[in-house]
């Protein structure tokens, strides 16, 4: 059925019946959706299929990786996610694949706990609480205790730590910490010894990494007798590459091999930055 030409105060259908032209203004019209009553371009979709809110040219801003751009070039701008006080608001990131791997990471604010969390692969990695305290439960960290008395020979010895208190990321094994990522690591050890011979020329305590050797040398010749108990420590912020290692060592020059490495000794570390 063919349409006939329609003309009124508002719209005109042309004779070819191909287009409708507005010839007036519809007054008293309201809408709860998107319409053309605005006096400016509140939402713009440009030729590159970038969407701008309060921006007429969204492709001009971070065009390489932003498909949605919010802004106001003359005032503050932002985005708000509203949810119930007992629920959370989340921004999720995906790589576009199927299955669980499509969900790569998220930023989530929990209204009930009043925390802001950052996660990857659906696992919480960092949390900022209402007081501004930051926790990173996946951050590499370890604390290992020596098992018991262990007699040390002359020359170099690698100290034995095999009583694990915690090892986040499982980076400690066979008396050795292996850096999982490149960074600055806070490393510390405190070692207790019994019966170090005062006839030794000197004793050297070493925290040895792939990049550096940190030492605490002691001259035991000044002692008049064998020391019953001696404690020594090293604490250092060490530069480590991924795969670099750190061990604790003991070196005795001269004297008798009477020194015992005590179980009251600890080796610890964590990724600082």
Description:
The chain has strands at residues 11-13, 20-22, 43-45, 51-53, 68-70, 88-94, 103-110, 115-120, 123-128, 134-135, 141-145, 150-151, 155-158, 163-168, 172-173, 176-178, 183-196, 202-209, 213-218, 227-240, 245-253, 260-261, 266-271. The model is unreliable at 3-7 (pLDDT under 50). By secondary structure, it is mainly β. The radius of gyration is 34 Å and the shape is rod-shaped. The chain is built from no helices and 23 strands. Strands 11, 12, 14, 17, 20, 22 and 23 form a 7-stranded antiparallel beta sheet that branches. Strands 13, 15, 16, 18, 19 and 21 form a 6-stranded antiparallel beta sheet that branches. The protein has 3 domains: 41-79, no CATH class; 88-135; 141-271, Jelly Rolls (Sandwich).
By DSSP (H or I, 4+ residues per run), the number of helices equals 0
Question: What overall geometry do the principal axes of the alpha carbons give?
Answer: rod-shaped
Q: Helical residue percent?
A: under 10%
The residue-averaged pLDDT reads 84
Straight-line N-to-C gap: 75 Å
Give the second-level CATH assignment, the architecture of the largest domain. Answer: Sandwich
Largest sheet: 7 strands, antiparallel
The chain-level structural class is mainly beta
DSSP E strands, number: 23
Q: Would you list the SSEs in sequence order as H and E?
A: EEEEEEEEEEEEEEEEEEEEEEE
Return residue spans where pLDDT drops below 50 for at least 5 consecutive residues: 3-7
Tell me the β content.
over 45%
Return the domain count: 3
Radius of gyration: 34 Å
CATH topology of the largest domain: Jelly Rolls
């Amino acid at each position: 059925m063919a349409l006939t030409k329609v003309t009124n105060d508002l719209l005109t259908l042309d004779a070819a019946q191909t287009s409708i032209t507005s010839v007036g203004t519809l007054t008293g019209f309201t809408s709860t959706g998107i319409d053309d009553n605005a006096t400016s371009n509140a939402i713009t979709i440009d030729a590159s299929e970038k969407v701008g809110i309060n921006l007429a040219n969204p492709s001009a801003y971070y065009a390489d990786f932003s498909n949605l751009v919010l802004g106001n070039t003359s005032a503050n701008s932002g985005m708000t996610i509203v949810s119930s006080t007992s629920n959370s608001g989340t921004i999720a990131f995906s790589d576009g694949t199927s299955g669980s791997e499509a969900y790569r990471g998220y930023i989530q604010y929990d209204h009930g706990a009043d925390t802001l969390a950052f996660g990857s692969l659906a696992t919480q990695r960092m949390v900022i609480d209402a007081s501004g305290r930051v926790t990173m439960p996946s951050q590499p960290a370890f604390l290992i205790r020596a098992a018991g008395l262990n007699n040390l020979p002359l020359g170099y010895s690698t100290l034995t730590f095999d009583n694990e208190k915690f090892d986040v990321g499982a980076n400690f094994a066979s008396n050795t910490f292996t850096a999982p990522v490149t960074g600055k690591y806070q490393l510390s050890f405190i070692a207790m010894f019994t019966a170090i011979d005062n006839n030794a020329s000197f004793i050297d305590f070493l925290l040895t990494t792939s990049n550096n050797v940190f030492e605490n040398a002691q001259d035991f010749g000044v002692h008049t007798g064998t020391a019953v108990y001696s404690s020594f420590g090293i604490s250092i912020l060490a530069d480590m590459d991924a795969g670099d290692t750190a061990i604790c060592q003991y070196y005795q020059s001269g004297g008798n091999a009477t020194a015992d490495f005590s179980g009251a000794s600890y080796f610890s570390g964590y990724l600082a930055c």
